[in-house]
Hints:
single chain; mainly alpha
Amino acid sequence: MSTTNLETPVKADAVGTNRWYLSAAPIIRALIHLCVPMAAAMIVGAVYNLVNAGFIGSLHDTALLAAITLGAPILGLVMAVGGVFGVGGGALISRLLGAAERDPARADEIKHVSSFAVWGSVIAGAVFGGAGLLLLDPLVSLLGADAAAAPATSAYIGVMLAFVPVLAASFCLEQIVRAEGAARQVMVGLIASTIANVVFDVLFILVLHWGVAGAALAMGLSNLGVVAYFAWWLHRHSEHVSLAPRWFTLAPDVIKPVFGVGVGELLQSSFLIVTSLVLNNLAVAYGDNALAAMGIAVRIAQIPEFLVMGVTIGVLPLLAYSYGKGDRDRLTSALRVSAITVGGIVLVFSTTVFLFREQVFTAFSADHSVLAIGVTILTAQLVAMVVNGFTGLITSLLQATGRSVAAIVMSVSQGVLFIPIVLLGNVWFGLAGIIWALTVTEVIVFLVGVLLWLTSRRAIDQGLAEGSPERAEEVLEHAEA
C-alpha cells in the first residue's frame, strides 16, 4: 500500500485541505473532491445555455437566435485563448506544487507561471478582441450571417469582443484555482456566475430590451465577477500563486511547458469549430428533420458526457501533482480509479439510454420522422461515448505529465480524422455515413491515444523516478560529495 495516504495535511486551513486532497487523501475522496464540483458546474452551465436561449426566444425574433448561433464559434475561440494559458499553466502549477514538496525552492517558480498565464491571457485576449472589432463586418460575413441576421450578429459579437480579455482571464483563472486542488471554489465561482448571468439577462433582455447585445453584456459582466472572485480567493488563500505583474516572465522554462500543453487546447477548439461547421453544412442537405434530430440527440447525451468530462478533466491536477512529486503509486491509483469511474458512468448511462432510447427521444419530439433519425444518431453517440471517456483520460495524463507533443497529437487528431471520414461517409453512405462518422473517428482517436500512452510510458516512468524523494536524496548526496 502506498505510504502517501498516511501523510499529514500540509496546513489546517482551506489551502492545506485542498493540498491534502492532492497529496495524501485516499484516492476516492480526492476524486470526489476534484471531479464532482467540476461535473456539477458543467451541468449548471448547460442548463444556463438552455435558459439563455429561452430568454432570446421569448422575443420571437429568429434573427436574434441566429445571431447567438453564429456567434458560438467566436466564443469557442475566446475560450481557447484562455485555455492556451490556463490549461497549460494549470498543469505546470500542479506539477510544481508536487515538486515543491521535495524541493521547496521550486515554489517560487509557481509565481512566474501564474503571472505569465493570467497576464498572457489578458494581453492575447486584448489583441484578439481588438483585431475582431477592427474587422467586425468581414467577420460577421465570414460567419454566414445574411442581411436579416447581420445587424443582430454584429451587435452580439461586437459586445463579446469588447470583453475578450475578461473572458480569457476568467477561463485561465478557473484552471489556476483548480490546479491548487480547489475544485469546490471553482464550482462556487461558476455557479454564482451563472446565477448572475441569468439576473443580468432578465434586466438587459426583458426589462431594458437590449436584445442579443444585452445577452453578450450579461455574459461579460458575470465573467468579470468570476475574475474578481478567483483573484480575491488566490490572493487570500493561495500560498504560492501570485497574479502580480512583477512576476511576469518570458523565460523559456515557463513559456515552453505552458504553450506545449496549451497550444493543443487551442488547436482542439479550432478543429471542433471547423468540424461543427462541416457537419452542419452536410446535414442541411438532408432537411430540417436531420438537424433537429442532431440537436435533440446532443442534449440527451450531454449529462453523461459532462459527468465523464468531470472525471477526466477534474483528475488532471491530481495526476500532475503526483507526477511532480514523483509519487508513482498515487499516480497509478488515480488513473486506475478514474478509469473504473469513467467505465461505470458510461456503462450505466449508455445501457439505460439505449434501452429506453425511443421513450427518451419522444419526450423531446413527437415527430416520427425526427424520432427515426434521432434514435440512430443517439445510438451512434452512445457508442462513441464508450471510448471518448478513456480518450479524455489519456489526454489528461499526457497533459499532466508534460508530454506536450503527444498531447497536441491527441488534441488535433479528432479534427484531422473527422473531416475526411465524414466527407467520405456522406459520399458513400449518405446520412448514415454522417451519423456514424464521429463514432468511427472516436474509435480511431482512442487507438491513437493508446499507442501514444504506450510510447510515452518510458518517459513518464523516467520523470517519476527523477521526481521521487529517493532520487532527490541521491542528487543531494551527490552534490554534497
